[in-house]
Design goal:
Strand order of the largest sheet: 6-7-8-12-3-2-13
Number of helices: 2
Keywords: Cell membrane, Decarboxylase, Lipid biosynthesis, Lipid metabolism, Lyase, Membrane, Phospholipid biosynthesis, Phospholipid metabolism, Pyruvate, Transmembrane, Transmembrane helix, Zymogen
Structural class: alpha+beta
Pfam family, one: PS_Dcarbxylase
Protein name: Protein sorting system archaetidylserine decarboxylase
CATH topology of the largest domain: Glucose Permease (Domain IIA)
Shape: elongated
Radius of gyration: 18 Å
Order of helices and strands: HHEEEEEEEEEEEEEE
CATH class of the largest domain: Mainly Beta
GO molecular function: carboxy-lyase activity
Mean pLDDT: 80
Number of domains: 2
Transmembrane segments: 20-44
Amino acid sequence: MVDFAPGGLRYATVSLLASLAAVVVSPVAAVVGLATTGFVLAFYRDPDRQVAPGGVASPADGRVSVIRRDPDGRLRVGVYMSAADVHVNRAPLSGTVEAVTHRPGANRPAFSKDSDRNEQVRVDCGAFDVVLVAGWFARRIHPYVEPGDAVERGDRIAHISFGSRADVVLPTGFDEADLTVEEGDRVVAGQTMLAAEPGVECRERA
């Protein structure tokens, strides 16, 4: 059985009913409605994943679009999710959620440099953060966690409706030599290792 992120079946049902009603008015509109229903179901799909056995797991499906140092010196790795990618986000490491904060902002394309000004939700787990960035079409970020929740590597922690980026701000001590990916690489949420633990000698590209 296929699982879907919260809200997916509701939106798909509304679209399906609208397309069925449109049959008597316009066959073309009905076909468009059915196609929209299929798109919604595909967008909200939530498949099970084999979790990375160690290191820092990707928080999202997509392509690595950001690798940089934050002002506090910690390394940030961002993953851009296209409309074709799964948009359920997962914990990159195990920890305890200390805060979940929302910051209003613009809705620039999530792959652009200006997207840092977009609406964001930051899941602060103390040693590391997951920053969920809304894209130009996305209007809602849906966290699944709240302060005090314990998460394990690969746990579902959020989803974003229709387009976005998910960044991991790595714990202090990680540097570029620990990365197992580079910009442009495709990654899978919970499954692809973005970085090995500092001091681990064997590092294979994902």
